[in-house]
Amino acid sequence: MKVVDTRGCRAKYSPLIPAVKALCETPKGEQLEILMDDAQAFNDLKEYLAEQQTGFREIYDGELMVLQFTV
Questions:
Q1: How far apart, in whole angstroms, are the C-alpha atoms of residue 63 and residue 47?
Q2: Crossing angle for the helix pair 16-25 and 39-51, to the nearest 10 degrees
Q3: Could you give all domains of the chain from N- to C-terminal order, each with its CATH number?
Q4: Residue 23 near residue 71 (C-beta atoms within 8 A)
Q5: What is the mean pLDDT of each run of 10 residues along the chain (71 residues)?
Q6: Would you call 44 exposed, middle or buried from its count of C-beta atoms within 10 A (0-12, 13-18, 19+)?
Q7: pTM of this prediction?
Q8: 19-40: b (≥16 Cβ within 10 Å) or e
Q9: Is residue 23 within a helix (H) or strand (E), and if so which, with residue range?
Q10: How far is it, in rounded angstroms, from Cα 15 to Cα 30?
């Protein structure tokens, strides 16, 4: 499983940039886990995955939000 940690990206750029980059670079069939601490970016990524009909698992642990899915 490939893990992408976007926590703390907000100050420099949108956390969606490394998340989408990883999504594009990950081979089909591989599992991807995205760690986020930006609720808006998290919701935007969930909406995108839903539009692409990609099932995902959401995990919440305080400020940490995690999306797990297979590309």
A1: 20
A2: 30
A3: 2-70 (3.30.110.40)
A4: yes
A5: 87 83 92 94 93 94 94 90
A6: middle
A7: 0.86
A8: bbebbeebeeeeebbbbbbbee
A9: helix 16-25
A10: 21
